[in-house]
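Need a sequence for this fold. Nothing fancy.
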């Protein structure tokens, strides 16, 4: 029998709780999200608390951690304008994506720090990024604010409905996306990332 360590959330610090989750729930896909402020500033930021909600309708979720109870630029822009473009981080753009995580003010754009260039969207006003192989134009479907035990808001959970898809031709064939050609990057703990490794197939029970 395996020997298991046991922890109660009440006995852990905030940092310890975070480390257990981000070290265990791996690999996590990374969303590179572009939004626009009311003054027209384009914000770009990466998020690894990201996944699919459903495909009918097509919907993605992003959890944006708050800072001292205040929504970050990405969440605030989405609340104000209801739109975002979600890009998939891959080996070709991960370095630039990491650059966009720098702490900037709401009147500064991460485009000035990175080598990303903008692409005009078809269904939303927010621009996408040319350097991404996959872009989802999205609109806000619903949101949830998460509170901690002290009743302080800590996270904005955003459910974003896909309005338009952009898929690079080189990774798409016969209705499928080639995972090796996409070469998406996933987040681990700390400063670590992972690439797509060995692929294997297991058939589901019938």
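Here you go.
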């Amino acid at each position: 029998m395996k020997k298991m360590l046991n922890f109660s959330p009440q006995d852990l610090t905030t940092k310890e709780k975070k480390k257990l989750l981000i070290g265990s729930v791996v690999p996590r896909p990374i969303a590179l999200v572009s939004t626009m402020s009311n003054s027209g500033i384009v914000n770009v930021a990466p998020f690894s608390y990201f996944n699919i909600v459903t495909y009918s309708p097509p919907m993605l979720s992003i959890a944006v951690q708050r800072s001292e109870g205040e929504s970050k630029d990405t969440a605030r822009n989405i609340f104000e304008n209801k739109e975002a473009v979600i890009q998939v981080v891959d080996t070709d753009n991960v370095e630039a994506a990491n650059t966009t995580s720098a702490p900037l003010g709401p009147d500064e754009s991460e485009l000035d720090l990175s080598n990303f260039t903008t692409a005009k969207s078809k269904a939303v006003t927010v621009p996408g990024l040319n350097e991404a192989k996959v872009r989802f134009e999205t609109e806000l479907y619903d949101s949830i604010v998460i509170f901690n035990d002290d009743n302080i808001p800590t996270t904005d959970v955003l459910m974003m409905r896909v309005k338009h898809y952009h898929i690079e031709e080189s990774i798409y064939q016969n209705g499928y996306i080639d995972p090796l050609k996409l070469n998406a990057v996933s987040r681990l703990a700390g400063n670590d990332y992972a690439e797509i490794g060995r692929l294997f197939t297991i058939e589901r029970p019938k």
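For context: The chain has a mean pLDDT of 95.
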